[in-house]
Amino acid sequence: MLCTGMTLTGVAFCPVGHTLYLGDDTMDATSAQIVDDQTLISGLARTSRAHLYVTTGIESGQVSLRLCGHDTRPAPRTTDVDWKWEDVGELSLLNPSSALSVCYFTGVDDDSSPPCHSVRLPPSGDAMYRVRVHARGRDLFFGRHAEDPVESYLIDVWPEPWSEPMMILRTSNYRFFGRAEGIPWNEGGK
């Protein structure tokens, strides 16, 4: 299934600390304090102060990333470009600017992507969006530096009122790192 809205595809750089930063202001994303609240989804991602933090397996280095903005909730997917996703989760994000930028992003291969490495999201009356994070390969170089991408991420974003975080698929060994208890599961979650 293709993205229905704007897309950004390329390579993102994880500077240090197992974290990719995305937000509506790339200058402020790394300075936003991560709040350990109910927005954590089992070591996969968390939101705080209008920013999304995706937890990588690598300590630092490059990962493949595709960021897709949608007008409405996209159908769930377990494959994209023939990749099997190992971990998938959803959480809500407050985003007043209706734009999501990727910090430390290079290798844009989509001509429709703006030069600031942002995806313009459809307007949302209450500025709330739902984010679905797909991850693959987080076990491969766990805790090490990766010069070339060994992990892949797909992030779908669409307007939707706030709802509880939810883990949809959890099959990597990484699932035990930063595990959050009490997160609801979709039918068939592992």
Report the structural category: mainly beta
CA-CA gap between termini: 23 Å
**Helix/strand order:** EEHEEEEEEEEEEEEE
Give the strand content. Answer: 35-45%
Number of helices: 1
Task: List how many beta strands DSSP finds.
Answer: 15
Gross morphology is: globular
The residue ranges in which pLDDT falls below 50 over 5 or more consecutive positions are 31-38, 110-115, 177-190
Radius of gyration (Å): 15 Å
Major beta sheet, specifics? 8 strands, mixed
Helix fraction, binned, reads under 10%
In a few lines, what is going on in this structure?
The protein has 190 residues and is mainly beta. 2% of the residues lie in helices and 41% in strands.
Descriptive notes:
By secondary structure, the chain is mainly β. The protein is 2% helix and 41% strand. It has 1 helix and 15 strands; from the N terminus they run ββαβββββββββββββ. Strands 1, 5, 8, 10, 12, 13, 14 and 15 form an 8-stranded mixed beta sheet that branches. Strands 3-4-2-9-11 form a 5-stranded antiparallel beta sheet. Strands 6-7 form a two-stranded antiparallel ribbon. β6 and β7 form a beta hairpin. The longest helix has 4 residues. The protein is globular, with a radius of gyration of 15 Å. It starts with 6 loop residues before the first strand and ends in a 20-residue tail after the last strand.
